[in-house]
UniProtKB/TrEMBL annotation:
<dbReference type="InterPro" id="IPR036890">
    <property type="entry name" value="HATPase_C_sf"/>
</dbReference>
<keyword id="KW-0418">Kinase</keyword>
<feature type="domain" description="Histidine kinase/HSP90-like ATPase">
    <location>
        <begin position="36"/>
        <end position="143"/>
    </location>
</feature>
<keyword id="KW-0808">Transferase</keyword>
<dbReference type="InterPro" id="IPR003594">
    <property type="entry name" value="HATPase_dom"/>
</dbReference>
<keyword id="KW-0723">Serine/threonine-protein kinase</keyword>
<protein>
    <recommendedName>
        <fullName>Histidine kinase/HSP90-like ATPase domain-containing protein</fullName>
    </recommendedName>
</protein>
<dbReference type="InterPro" id="IPR050267">
    <property type="entry name" value="Anti-sigma-factor_SerPK"/>
</dbReference>
<dbReference type="Pfam" id="PF13581">
    <property type="entry name" value="HATPase_c_2"/>
</dbReference>
<dbReference type="GO" id="GO:0004674">
    <property type="term" value="F:protein serine/threonine kinase activity"/>
</dbReference>
Amino acid sequence: MSADTVNPIPLYASSLRLTAVPTAVGCSRMFVGHTLKLWQLKDHAETATLVMSELVTNAVKASGITEPEPKAWQITAEHVIGIQLRAIEASLYVEVWDRSDQAPVRKNPDLETEGGRGLLLVEQLAKRWNVYRPRVGGKVVWAELPLGVPVELRPFEHTPPPLPRGIRAMQGPVESQARSALLDVLMTTTVDAMCAARVIRET
């Protein structure tokens, strides 16, 4: 197969590392809205925002600080989560990394129980969801949302989301780990999608 026969699959991807505190949930929603507007996929922002919020909430609980207003001295370079959006073929992927190896557990709370419905909501909104184990450790919980039609690359000016000061994760080993984990899942799943698309085209 020569280079001339390769047809690249359009791919959008954007990631961010945030401090693992409760305000990361709101910032992740801003990231989704901002990013999907740039990609001209804002019709999918509501669902993607709900899914991202639930996954980030779980990630903060698993490896961050859950106090509503943590003190500055409590936050260290270990308190990091990574978030990523990826659009390829006819799917939008919402991906969240945290440094805990423990997989989230889907609960079945009764009507009187407060909380515990996050993964149930993700399951209802997503085409599918699962956990990816990157080589650098931790986990990426991801959800696939249908777009209806394959994405088409369109020119846009990249601008960073307007996030509050101090919410971006501190640089250090864990921030680098988050960056590597998100790149790992991006590369692995993108190659898988490209191979699957090629098989479909050849059959």
